[in-house]
Write a structure and sequence with these properties.
Blueprint lengths: L4 H10 L5 E3 L10 E5 L8 E6 L7 E5 L4 E5 L4 E4 L14 E6 L7 E5 L11 E5 L7 E4 L17 E3 L7 E4 L5 E4 L7 E2 L13 E3 L4 E3 L2 E6 L13 E5 L7 E4 L7 E2 L8 E7 L5 E6 L10 E7 L5 E4 L12 E7 L7 E6 L8 E4 L7 E2 L5 E3 L16 E4 L7 E4 L4 E4 L12 E4 L9 E5 L7 E5 L3 E5 L16 E8 L2 E10 L10 E4 L7 E2 L11 E4 L6 E4 L6 E3 L7 E2 L9 E3 L7 E5 L4 E5 L7 E3 L19 E4 L8 E5 L4 E4 L7 E3 L2 E10 L9 E8 L2 E7 L7 E2 L10 E6 L7 E5 L4 E6 L2
Parallel strand pairs: 1-52, 29-33
Antiparallel strand pairs: 2-59, 3-4, 4-5, 5-6, 7-8, 8-9, 9-10, 11-12, 12-13, 13-14, 15-16, 17-18, 18-19, 19-20, 21-22, 22-23, 23-24, 25-26, 26-27, 27-28, 30-31, 31-32, 32-33, 34-35, 35-36, 37-38, 38-39, 39-40, 41-42, 42-43, 43-44, 45-46, 46-47, 47-48, 49-50, 50-51, 51-52, 53-54, 54-55, 55-56, ...
Length: about 750
C-alpha cells in the first residue's frame, strides 16, 4: 500500500529525523521542446509492412516493441504514430497487428499490446481516421503479444473490403473476435472452431510458452458488392498435424475447415492475389522462431477448391528453413515475392516470380547493397525477414523487414532481366532499439550509449549513425560510468550471448569511449550488472548481476568484495570525492556510505521510506535509483518507488524530500542554466499530480514540464541531461531508441 504523505512526514518527525520538505512553488507553464531520435540507424524487428492498396495512398510499418510508423515520402523518413502513448500505456507500444481500410486511405487500425500476460493487462484497439495522425482507443478484453513468438505472422486484424464497419481479429488465446462498428466494440465469435485455443496452437521451449492462436484473417475480395458484408472469410490457426485453415461462407457466422489443405506445417501468413487465389506461406514453427521446414501453397476457391504447391525451393535435411511472408503486384497477375526464414546456408532470400510460382528468381543473392551511412550493419546480412511488400504504384519498388530495420529497392524488375537488384537501407527515423545505459560526460563525445542486442555507441554527432564500441564488443551494454574529474576514463559492463568460460563482461576506456580494453578479471557472480568509478578514476566498483559488489584499484586485474553490503546492492560514486561511494539498502531502507574507496560501507542517517508496491507491466520498471551529479561533493539524490524524490547535500546524513514529486522512475542531471551553479535536474514521473517529463533549474524547488501529450514515448527511463549544453536532455525508451530534446524557443 502507499503511505500518505502527511503520515510519512509525521513518522519522520516522531523519529527525530533530519528529513524536511523542500519548498516548492506551483509548477510553471510547460517549456516547449523539440524532439528527435539519436541516430543509430535501426535495431529492432520489423513485423509488418503494408502499402495501402490504392496507389500512392500510404505506407505503414509495425514493430514488435517500437510502435507503428508512416512513411513520409517528402521527408524521406519514417514518422512514429504512437509517441503519444505514455508510461502507464507503454505495453501498447508493441503492435500485434496493423490493418488498413481498402476503401478509405485515412482509416488505420492497430491491435496494440506487447505481452500477453495478466501483469500487463489487456491490449487495446487503436483506430485512426487521419492516417495515424491521431487515434481513438477501444478496449478489448484479451491480451496481445506484439513481442512474443508468432509476431511475424499475420495479419490477425482485417477490415472487410466491402463493409468498412466490420473488422475481424484473430487472438492468441481467446478465439476469433468481430467488430460491427469500426473497431469501437468487439464480441467473440463463438462458432469458430475450438482448435484456435487448443494446446497445439501454442509454442513452447525450455524458456517460453506462448499462445499463438489465430495467425491471420483474410477476406475474399470477390464479395457481393460495396455495403454488403463479405461472405467468404478465411482464418489460419498456428497449429500443425490437424486442419488449420478455416472458411466462412456466411460473413463469419459459421466456420468449416477448407478441404484438401496441407496440415503438416503451421500457416504463417496469407493474402489474396489479384487472380482471386489465396496464397499461404507455411513454416514448421511460428515466425519468428527457428524453422526447419516450410512451403508456399496456392489455393483457388471454387467448386473443386484446388491446391497447388508453388514452393520456390524445398527445404531438406541438408538445408532446413521455412517460409515467412508474401506480397503481390496487383497490376500484374502472377507477380509476387516470398521470403525464407532461418535459411542460414547461403542466407535468407526474397524470391520473385512473374508466372504465378512456376519459376522463381532470387533478388538478394548477388544484389548491390547501399548501407545508407549506417556503419554498424556493414557485417550484417538480411535475416529475420518476416514481412515483405510491393508498391501498388511502382512495380520496381519493394521493401522487406529484418531484425534490424527495413531494406528497400526501386529497381526490382532488374531481377527479371538477370541484372543486379540494388537494395538500400531505408530506416531513417525508425530507431526501434532498446537502450540500456546513457552517459553524457563533461568532456569528449556528448553521449555514450549501451543498447540491447547491438552493444552501444560513442555518439560524436547525434544526427549521424555511429560506429559501435571498438576494441571490446558485448551483445548489449547495460551499464556505463565515467570518472567525474577525469571523464576520459570510462567503464562499462554488458551481456554476452553464448557466453564462453573465461569471457569478461566488463571493459574500460582511457580515451572517452573511442576504444576499449577488457578487464583482466571480473568479480564472482554472473557478470553484467552495474558498474561505477570514483571521481579520480582510481577505484572501480562493480556489482555483478548475481553477486556482491566488489572494488578494484588496478583496472580490473583483481577484485575485492565490498564489506557491509548485501548481494545485488548497486553502488554509485560521489561526484567529486574520490573516496566516497553510496548504496541504497532496500531491505532496511538505509543509505549506506563508504568513505574508504568502496572497501567498507555503513548506514548513514535515518531510514528512508520503504519501496512502494509494484504497478504491474512496464510501470514496474524501477524500485529505487541513486544518482550523483558530477562535480558536487556530498550531493546524492534518490528516488524510491511509491515515494518522493529525495536530495542530500551532506553525503547522506540527512535528506530533503522534494515536494510534489511521486514515483520518479528515472532522473538525471545536466548543465546548469545561465547564472546558476546547481545542475539542471530532469525527471520522468509524477510531479504536481501530472505524469510527464520535467526539468528543474533550482534543485527541485520548482519544475517545468518539457514533454507534451503528443510526445510521451512510452516508458521513459535512463534520463540524463547533457553535461555541457543546458536544456538538452536524453532518455532511453523501450523500443523508440534514444530520444533527445532541446528547448524549442
Amino acid at each position: 500500500m502507499r503511505i500518505p504523505l502527511a503520515h510519512l512526514l509525521l513518522s519522520f518527525a516522531l523519529a527525530g529525523s533530519h528529513f524536511a520538505l523542500a519548498a516548492t512553488a506551483a509548477t510553471p507553464a510547460p517549456v516547449p521542446y523539440r524532439w528527435d531520435g539519436v541516430a543509430i540507424g535501426g535495431g529492432g524487428l520489423i513485423t509488418g509492412i503494408e502499402f495501402h492498396p490504392q496507389p500512392g495512398a500510404g505506407l505503414f510499418v509495425r514493430t514488435d516493441v517500437g510502435g507503428a510508423y508512416r512513411w513520409d515520402e517528402t521527408g524521406g523518413r519514417w514518422v512514429s504514430l504512437t509517441d503519444w502513448l505514455g508510461w502507464k500505456d507503454s505495453n501498447l507500444m508493441g503492435i500485434e497487428s496493423l490493418a488498413l481500410d481498402p476503401r478509405d486511405p485515412q482509416r488505420l487500425f492497430l491491435a496494440a499490446g506487447t505481452y500477453n500476460h495478466p501483469s500487463f493487462g489487456h491490449g487495446a484497439m487503436l483506430r485512426s481516421t487521419d492516417a495515424g495522425r491521431s487515434f481513438a482507443r477501444s478496449e478489448i478484453p484479451l491480451g496481445m503479444g506484439g513481442n512474443e513468438i508468432g509476431r511475424g505472422g499475420g495479419e490477425r486484424l482485417a477490415v472487410d473490403p466491402n463493409d468498412s464497419r466490420i473488422l475481424f481479429f484473430g487472438s492468441r488465446d481467446a478465439g476469433l473476435w468481430r467488430s460491427p462498428d469500426g473497431a469501437q466494440s468487439w464480441k467473440r465469435v463463438e462458432t469458430f472452431p475450438a482448435v484456435a485455443t487448443a494446446p497445439g496452437a501454442r509454442w513452447r521451449n525450455e524458456w517460453l510458452d506462448h499462445a499463438i492462436g489465430i495467425g491471420f484473417v483474410a477476406f475474399d475480395p470477390a464479395g457481393d458488392g460495396a455495403g454488403q458484408p463479405t461472405p467468404r472469410i478465411y482464418a489460419g490457426v498456428s497449429i500443425a498435424g490437424t486442419e488449420n485453415l478455416f472458411r466462412s461462407t456466411d460473413a463469419g457466422a459459421t466456420w468449416q475447415p477448407v478441404p484438401g489443405q496441407p496440415t503438416n506445417l503451421r500457416p504463417t501468413r496469407a493474402n489474396f492475389g489479384p487472380d482471386g487465389a489465396l496464397y499461404i506461406v507455411y513454416g514448421s514453427d511460428p515466425c519468428p522462431n527457428v524453422m526447419t521446414d516450410g512451403a508456399v501453397w496456392k489455393f483457388e476457391p471454387g467448386a473443386e477448391d484446388r491446391w497447388t504447391d508453388i514452393t520456390p525451393i524445398k527445404p531438406g535435411s541438408a538445408m532446413q528453413f521455412g517460409y515467412s511472408a508474401i506480397a503481390f503486384d496487383p497490376a500484374h497477375h502472377g507477380t509476387m515475392l516470398v521470403t525464407t526464414w532461418n535459411k542460414w546456408a547461403g542466407g535468407d532470400e526474397v524470391y520473385r516470380t512473374t508466372d504465378g510460382g512456376k519459376t522463381w528468381r532470387p533478388t538478394l543473392s548477388g544484389a548491390e547493397w547501399d548501407k545508407a551511412g549506417v556503419p554498424w550493419i556493414d557485417t550484417m546480412r538480411p535475416h529475420w525477414i518476416c514481412t515483405v511488400a510491393l508498391d501498388p504504384a511502382n512495380p520496381d519498388r519493394a521493401l522487406f523487414g529484418t531484425g534490424y530495420g527495413v531494406w528497400e529497392t526501386r529497381n526490382l524488375t532488374a531481377a527479371d532481366r538477370g541484372e543486379r537488384v540494388k537494395w538500400t537501407f531505408a530506416n531513417r527515423g525508425l530507431e526501434e532499439t532498446v537502450p540500456l545505459a546513457l552517459l553524457s560526460p563533461p568532456r569528449g563525445a556528448p553521449l555514450l550509449s549501451g543498447v540491447a542486442d547491438i552493444d552501444g555507441f560513442r555518439h560524436d554527432d547525434l544526427t549521424v549513425s555511429a560506429v559501435q564500441h571498438v576494441g571490446v564488443r558485448f551483445t548489449g551494454t547495460g551499464s556505463l560510468a565515467c570518472a567525474a574529474a577525469k571523464p576520459e576514463f570510462v567503464v562499462r559492463t554488458g551481456h554476452i550471448r553464448n557466453h564462453q568460460p573465461g569471457q569478461i563482461h566488463g571493459a574500460y576506456s582511457e580515451d572517452g569511449g573511442t576504444s576499449w580494453k577488457t578487464f583482466a578479471a571480473e568479480p564472482a557472480g554472473e557478470g553484467e550488472g552495474r558498474i561505477t568509478v570514483s571521481a579520480d578514476g582510481a577505484t572501480i566498483v562493480w556489482t555483478p548481476r548475481s553477486g556482491a559488489a566488489h572494488w578494484s584499484r588496478d583496472r580490473g586485474a583483481t577484485w575485492t568484495r565490498c564489506a557491509g553490503l548485501a548481494d545485488g546492492t548497486v553502488v554509485v560514486a560521489d561526484g567529486a570525492n574520490p573516496k566516497r561511494f553510496y548504496a541504497f539498502d532496500a531491505a532496511t531502507s538505509h543509505l549506506r556510505v563508504s568513505a574508504d574507496g568502496g572497501a567498507t560501507f555503513a548506514p548513514r542517517g535515518k531510514a528512508l521510506p520503504q519501496i512502494g508496491p509494484a504497478h504491474g507491466g512496464f510501470a514496474d520498471g524501477f524500485t529505487a535509483e541513486l544518482v550523483t551529479p558530477h562535480g558536487r561533493d556530498g550531493e546524492v539524490w534518490l528516488s524510491i518507488r511509491g515515494a518522493q524524490l529525495f536530495r542530500s547535500t551532506n553525503a547522506g546524513k540527512s535528506f530533503r524530500a522534494i515536494a510534489k514529486t511521486k514515483d520518479i522512475h528515472s532522473f538525471g542531471f545536466g548543465a546548469s542554466a545561465s547564472g546558476r551553479r546547481n545542475p539542471a535536474v530532469y525527471a520522468a514521473g509524477v510531479i504536481g499530480g501530472v505524469d510527464g517529463l520535467f526539468r528543474s533549474i533550482d534543485s527541485g524547488a520548482t519544475w517545468q514540464r518539457i514533454d507534451d501529450d503528443a510526445h510521451r514515448f512510452g516508458w521513459i527511463y535512463a534520463v540524463t541531461g547533457d553535461a555541457r549544453v543546458f536544456g538538452r536532455v536524453y532518455f532511453a525508451t523501450v523500443g523508440r531508441g534514444i530520444i533527445y530534446g532541446v528547448p524549442a524557443e
